[in-house]
Amino acid sequence: MRSLIRRPVAEDAPRDPAPSKLGYRYQRLMLTPGFRATVRIGVPIILIATIAGSWYSQPENRANLTASIAQSKQSFQQRPQFMVQTMNVTGGDLAAMTEVSALLPTEFPFSSFDLDLEKIRADIEALDPIKSASVRVGQAGALEVRLNPRVPVALWRDGATLRLIDADGVQSGQILARADRLDLPLIAGDGAEENIAEALALFDAAGPLIKRVRGLVRMGERRWDMVLDRDQRILLPGDQPVSALDRVIALNQAQDMLNRDVAVVDMRNTDRPTLRMNEEAADALRRVNTTIDENGAGN
Amino acid sequence: MGDLYDSQRAMRQMRKAAMQRGVVAILDIGTSKIACLVLRFDGPEQFRTDGVGSLAGQSQFRVIGAATTRSRGVRFGEVDAMQETERAIRTAVQAAQKMANVRVDHVIACLSGARPRSYGLDGTLNVSGGTVTEQDISQVMASCDVPDYGADRDVLHAQPVNFALDHRSGLADPRGQIGNELKTDMHMLTVDATAIHNIFYCIKRCDLELAGIASSAYVSGMSSLVEDEQELGAACIDLGGGTTGLSVFMKKHMIYADSVRMGGEHVTSDISMGLQIPMPVAERIKTFYGGVMATGMDDREMIEIGGDTGDWEHDRRTVSRAELIGIMRPRVEEILEEVRERLDAAGFEHLPGQQIVLTGGGSQIPGLDGLASKILGQQVRLGRPLRVQGLPQAAIGPAFSSAVGLTLFAANPQDEWWDFEIPADNYPARSLKRAVKWFKDNW
C-alpha cells in the first residue's frame, strides 16, 4: 500500500546549474575592467548630470534655486550673533567725531555681513582731521571706530584761507581767523607746506625774536623770509637758514639792530649780510653824512 | 605534419600572450567532473639569496579561482554530447571567474581519453666534427623516422627524451659540443583527431581561446610523481572516472603513456546493476562505504541502500559492506590487470625504478594500495598532487592531480618538437643561406 503522506517528488531531471549563454556572456562582459568602470562610474554620472541639467533648464526652477539660496544666505547672515547693535567712536575731538558719524550707517541693528569695514575706514581716513582710523566689530555687536586725529603744528595762509598743517605737511582743517589759533606759527607762500620741518626749526631758533615774528614766507619755493612786525623782513638763505638766523639774533642782541629803522636784513649771501633801511632813515643818514662833509670831517 | 606544427605553434603563441596578460584558466575535462582553475602569473619569481626558489619553483603563479562541476556529455574522457559538455564547461568557467573576479580569455585544457598511443622515434644526423648548433638539433629531430600513425590522429606531445653524440648518451643539451654523429630519441603521443577537434570546438563556443592542450596522464604524472621518481623511472596511474591513464617517466621525461578505457564510473555502474539501485545512490554508497579488502567486520556492517518505490520491502533493503566489496573488487582488479598488461607491453620492468604511484579520484578507495601491490608489484604508493599556491582545500585531493599538473604544464612546459627552430631546409627563403653553407662546408 502506498503511503498517504505526500512525499517530496524526486526530480526527474537534476537541476541544471549551467548558466545561459547570455548570462555567461553578461558575466564576462561585467568582468571586463573597462566596461565595468564605465557601468559603475560613467553611467551614474551621466544619469545624475542629465537629471540635474533637465531640472536646471526650466526658468522657474532656476529662479527658485537662486531665491532659496539668497533666502538661506540672508537667514544665516541675520542671526543675532552677526548683528551690529551699537556704535562707539573714540579718539577724536567733537568736530571730527561729528564728521565721522555722518559717514557711518545710522540704522541699527544691521548684519555685519552688510558692513564694508575697509570702505568705511578709507572714507574716514579721507577726512582732513583724521590721520588714521581702525574700524572693527567688537564685543556684543558694537561697531568700534578708533580715530587717530592729525595734530596741527602750523597755520598756512593761502590767499584768504587759513589752513591747519600737521607735521607731515598735510592739511588737517581750516579756520576762519588767525585769532582762533594764536598758539600756532603762521607760514605762507608756495611750497611752504612741503618744508614744514624746516619752518618749525626756524621758529624754534627764533628765541628772543619770537614775540615779534609774524610768520615765515616761502620765497620761490626755495628759501624762507621771516616776517617781523613793523614790516621788517629777515631774508634767509636756501641752505642752513637756522645758522643765518642765529647770526641775525646775535647781531640784534649786540647792536639792538632790529629795534632800529631797518626794513630788510638780507642774509641770502652769508658772506655779506646786508641791511636795507626805510626811506626816511636812509634820507636822514644821507643828510647827516652831508652835514658832516660840509662841517668838515676833521673833528 | 606541418599543419599540426602550425596549430601547436599558434597555441604556444597564445600561451605567451596569456602569460603577458597574467591570467590563464586551466580546464580539466574529465568523465565525472570538470575542474576549472584560474591562475594569475606574477612574473618571474623572486629568488632567495641561495638561488633556490620557494615551492620548487612553482611560486611564480597563484590559483585565484577554482570551480568544479559535474561533467555531462563526456564519456571515456571524450566529448560525447557537445552541447552538454559546452554547458558544463561554461558552468565551471563562470564559477571560477566569479571567484577570481577576473575575466579569463585563454584556456589550457587536458583530455584523458581519445585512445593515446605512444611512439618512440629516433633520428641521426652527421655533424662531421663540428659543434652542435641549434639548427643541428632541429635537423636531427626533423630526420626522425615518423611512423604512419593514421590520418585521423593528431600528435599531442612530441618531446625529445634523449640526445646522444657519438658514444655518449643521455645528454640533455648537446649544443656547443663537438662530435660526429648526433642521435636523438623522441617520444611522440598521438590521439584521435576528432577528440581534439571536439574539445577545441567546445572551448571556442564558450568564447575562450585554447592556449595549450595536454594529455591528462602526462600532467597527473608531473604533479604527483616526486622528483627522484621522475628521474629514476616510475609509472603514474591516474584512476579517473571513465578512463585510467598511465604514464611512465624516466629522466624527467615521459617515455610512455596510455589509457585504459575503464574507471570509477564502471565500478559505480557495477554497484548500480548489482544492487538494483540508481546511479547517484550507487555513487554515494561507493564513496561512503566502498573498499576492496574485506574483513570479518564488514559482514556485520549493514548499509541501507534505500529506494523510492513505495514498496516497504524494496525500500528497506540493506546490504552488507562485504557484499559491496565483493561487487567492487573484481572491477578494480580488472582495471589494474589491464594496467599491468599495458605496463608489461611498454617494458616497464626494464626501468631502474619500479615505483608505481596511484592517483586520481579512484585511488581514494580504502585498501586499494594493498590490492594494487598484489597486482602491480611491491613498490606502490598513493600519490597526491603537489601543493600549489592558493589552491583551495577542496581541490588538493588526488582527484585534482591532473588539474594541478596542468598548472605546472602552464607555468613551465617541457620543450616539445615545435618549440625548437624550424629546420633551415624547410624554409625556401633561406636557400641562399644554404648555398653559402654548402660552399663553406665543401671548400
Descriptive keywords:
heterodimer; A: 299 residues; alpha/beta; Ubiquitin-like (UB roll); 9-stranded mixed beta sheet; 3-stranded mixed beta sheet; 8 helices; 38% helix; rod-shaped; B: 443 residues; alpha+beta; Dna Ligase, domain 1; Nucleotidyltransferase, domain 5; 5-stranded mixed beta sheet; 14 helices; 18 strands; globular
3D architecture notes:
The complex is a heterodimer of chains A (299) and B (443). Chain A is α/β, with parallel strands linked by helices and 299 residues long. Chain A contains 8 helices and 14 strands. In chain A, a hairpin with a 7-residue loop joins β13 (262-266) and β14 (274-277). In chain A, α6 runs parallel beside α7 (241-255). Chain B is an alpha+beta fold. Among the domains of chain B are: 117-191, Dna Ligase, domain 1 (2-Layer Sandwich), CATH 3.30.1490.110; 264-328, ATPase, nucleotide binding domain (Nucleotidyltransferase, domain 5, 2-Layer Sandwich), CATH 3.30.420.40. Helices cover 37% and strands 26% of the residues of chain B. Chain B has helices at 2-21, 82-100, 134-142, 193-205, 216-224, 227-232, 264-275, 279-289, 297-300, 312-315, 321-346, 368-376, 401-411, 431-442; strands spanning 23-29, 33-41, 61-70, 74-75, 78-79, 106-111, 117-126, 153-165, 168-171, 181-192, 209-215, 234-239, 244-250, 253-260, 302-304, 318-320, 355-359, 380-382. In chain B, the strands form 5 sheets. A 5-stranded mixed beta sheet of chain B has the order 3-2-1-6-11, sandwiched between helices. In chain B, 44% of the residues are buried. The mean pLDDT of chain B is 86. Chains A and B meet through α1 of A and α2 of B.
